[in-house]
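Hi L., both proteins are below.
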Amino acid sequence: MKIFTVEEANALIPNVRNILARIQKAHKNVSRYRVEAKKAADAAEQGGGGMVEGITYAKLLTKFTALLTELEGLGVQLKDYERGLVDFPSLRDGRVVLLCWQLGEGDELEWWHDVDAGFVCDVPRAAPTQRPQIAVPNPD
C-alpha cells in the first residue's frame, strides 16, 4: 500500500479528477448493458448465452477495467463510482488513516477518516486531535 503525504496526494488531484471523470463515463456506458449481460450470464449457465452487442460490451468492460487499474496504480483507493469518492492512505500520529476527496471538491484535500470508519469523511484535515465517528459500513 502506498502511503501519501498530504502534498503528494494534493499534487495528484488533477490527474485523479481526470481519471475519475473517465471512470464515471465508462461505468455509465457499461451499465447500459446490465440487463442484457445478466440475461446472457443466466443463459450461459444453461448452456447458451451471448449478446447482440457482446463485442462492444467486452470492449467497454476492458476500458473500464483499464481505468480502474490506472487509478489503483497510483495508489489511490476508489470508494464510490457515482460520487467519485477516493481515499489516499496516509500516516497521522503514527497510524494509517485515509485522506478522502471526491469529485466536485477543490484542489486540496480537506478531510480524513480512520481506516475502519467506512465511507465517512467527517474530520477536517486541520483537526489533528479530533476522532471521526465510526460509520455504518456500506453493504455494497
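That was the first. Here is the second:
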Amino acid sequence: MLTALSMGAAFAHLLEMPAKLRYDGPTWLHLLQTLYPPGFGTVGAGCEVLAVVASLVLVVATRNQRKTFPWTLLGFSCVLASHAIFWIWVNPVNLTMTPLTPGTLVIDWTRLRDQWEFAHASRAVLQIVALGAFVLSLLAEIPTADLPNSDKPRYDPTRGNA
C-alpha cells in the first residue's frame, strides 16, 4: 500500500511534466514553491520513507522463499533507488530554487528544472516497476493447481485426494 501511495505521487509528477516543461521560469518556480510543499513534501515523503522501510522488512521476511524473494528484492531495490534519486538529484534543486524569487531566478534555471523533472520521471518509472514486482511476488506463491484451466490435478476436499 505504501509503495502504491508513493508511486501515485511520482506518477503525478510524470503526468505534469510535459506541460511544466513549457512554462516560463517564474511560473515553474511558483509551482515549485507553492504546489509541492504542502502535500508532496509531507504526506508523499512520509509514504515514501515508510515504503522503503516496509519493503526492507518484506525482503528480510521473504529471504528464504525461492519464488517470492527475487521479486521482493527487485521491488525493494527500485523503491530504494527512487528514494536515492530524490536525495541526489531532486532535493539539491529544491534547496537551490525554493528561496528564489522571479527576480533572482538563476540564469541556468532550465538545467535545474530539467534535472528536477527528469529525476522525478525516473522515480515514477522505478516505483511503477517496484509495485509490479511486489504484485508478482504475491502471484509467484499461488499454487498453479489452484488456477483455472491448470493441467495439474486439483485437490478435492470431499474426496481427500488430488
